[in-house]
Amino acid sequence: MGVESKRAYEAVVMPQLGESIVEATLVRWLVAEGTGVTRGQPIAAIETDKASSEIPAPETGLLENCVAEGATVAVGHTIAEIRVGPPVIDDGISGPATDAGGDAQPESAGVVPTTGRLTSRPRFDAVGPARLSPAVRRIARQSGLDPLTIRGTGRHGRVTRNDMLRALERTLEPAPKAAAVSKTEVTGPASYAPVHVDSSANGAPRATSLSKRRRAIARELRRSLDTAVHVFAVAEIDMSRVEAARARDRAFAEAQGLRLTYLPYVITALAAALRAFPDLNASMEGETLTYRNEINVGVATETANGLVVPIVRSADELGLLGLARAVERLSRGARAGTLAPSDFTGGTFTVSNPGRDGNLYGVSIIRQPEVAILRMGVVQKRAIVEEINGQDAIFVRPMMYAALSYDHRVVDGRSGNAFLTRIKEHLQRTQPLSL
To answer: Is residue 343 among the annotated active site residues?
Structure first.
């Protein structure tokens, strides 16, 4: 009889990706169940209606009892376990003493919402026919599936409970229809994920439901419109000084591996204005207004799965190149889905920058529980009239419209307009880093 030392199990829990997020979807596992992982190693990709992220391993050990890919799990609930502790003494029998498919669970067991270390548990029988666990043998008896015909994903190729369940699902899938259905990808605005619409051979449209992500986004936008009293103000900003500063600063930034866009200049001006107008660096929840000390600017970022808002923390303390570095890291991580959950929390104000493909101007819906959002229009050369020595003169300048949406419950018109004017004046006085 083998002897097993005491082992601890560390729960891998669904993290909080935002203040209002209560659940997330496990998109895929980045390592196979039963594989050894190290503490801090990314092991799972998750997503909500607002963000995509990766979950790191909380401990070093074997990844076990993984929730199925595609499952939606409440925040704080367990999605897997990591078996940690000293190795098992097993009378010379090689291979793991437990099944990586989580066979210790009863047939009706779901995910256990624990958040701490789990106690040691009995070892499963690993020396039966073909090294099959009791749960695998039970599923084989009930379904008629032959485990020896299934490719195992457990350690050393062992067939796990999840392998059996996935194989059973495949046998239950309906046969494909005889008539082929063409699939056309229809792309809307860049901030929306692509929508797939099936059509029959004669081109007749077929109605379909919004995706889960789109429904969640719609709920949040509707909630904001129903909660905040939206008021809009638009300023036209001469970006000549920013253009000149950017031209001089670009080489210095590139020498440090940074791509210098307009956004760091705008965040610099925005942070200075927020420090002068604390009413706009606040949050409103119910009847409680909270003034925030830190200036944490959310940057709306378009990804293949929709719009997400990672946070530039302490934006007023970073300086131009620090902001450029933060924006680049967040935008790359958001598009790759590699940002940590903490990158999406704690925002105090949001800026939306559609970039060079943006429109002349547009207005945005406030991101709850914040009280304002700034949307940048495209920078475009336009003819403007200026008075020189009492005479009107026409000049061509790089101009940008900036639209401020603010909550009239918290911010009055005078403060909103003065705040936007402060941003405009700051940008129109921009100096290169060398001056």
So the answer is: no
Report residue 216 CA to chain centroid gap: 14
Burial code of 61-78, b = ≥16 C-beta within 10 A, e = fewer? bbbbbbbeeeeebebebb
* Amino acid 316: pLDDT: 96
Respond yes or no: is residue 279 known to be catalytic.
Answer: no
- For residues 402 and 313, the answer to whether their CB atoms sit within 8 Å is no
Q: 381, exposed or middle or buried, with CB in 10 Å at 0-12, 13-18, 19+?
A: exposed
Among 146, 156, 196, 408, the one annotated catalytic: 408
Q: What is the CATH number of domain 214-428?
A: 3.30.559.10
> How far is 356 from 45, CA to CA, in rounded Å?
30
* CA-based nearest residue to 49, from 215, 186, 292, 163: 215
Q: How far apart are CA 378 and CA 386, in angstroms?
A: 22
C-alpha neighbours within 13 Å on the C-beta side of residue 319: 6
Query: pLDDT of 87-109, one tens digit each?
Result: 343 333 334 444 444 444 443 33
Q: Please spell the DSSP secondary structure of 277-330, one letter per residue.
A: -GGGSEEEETTEEEE-SS--EEEEEEETTEEE--EETTGGGSHHHHHHHHHHHH
Distance CA 431, CA 360 (A): 25
- Whole-model pTM: value is 0.62
Cα 203 to chain center, whole Å? 36
**Beta-carbon neighbour count of residue 176 at 10 Å?**
8
Of 304 and 78, the one with more pLDDT: 78
105-147 pLDDT tens trace: 443 333 333 333 333 333 333 333 445 676 777 777 666 677 7
**Beta strands 349-352; 297-303: pairing state:** parallel
The secondary structure element, H or E, covering residue 83 is: strand 78-84
- The contacts of residue 374 (CB under 8 Å, 6+ apart) are 266, 270, 349, 350, 351, 352, 364, 402, 403, 404, 405, 423
Q: Is 4 helix (H, G, I), strand (E, B) or coil?
A: coil
What CATH number labels 8-172?
A: 2.40.50.100
Each domain of the chain, given as residue ranges in start order, spans: 8-172, 182-210, 214-428
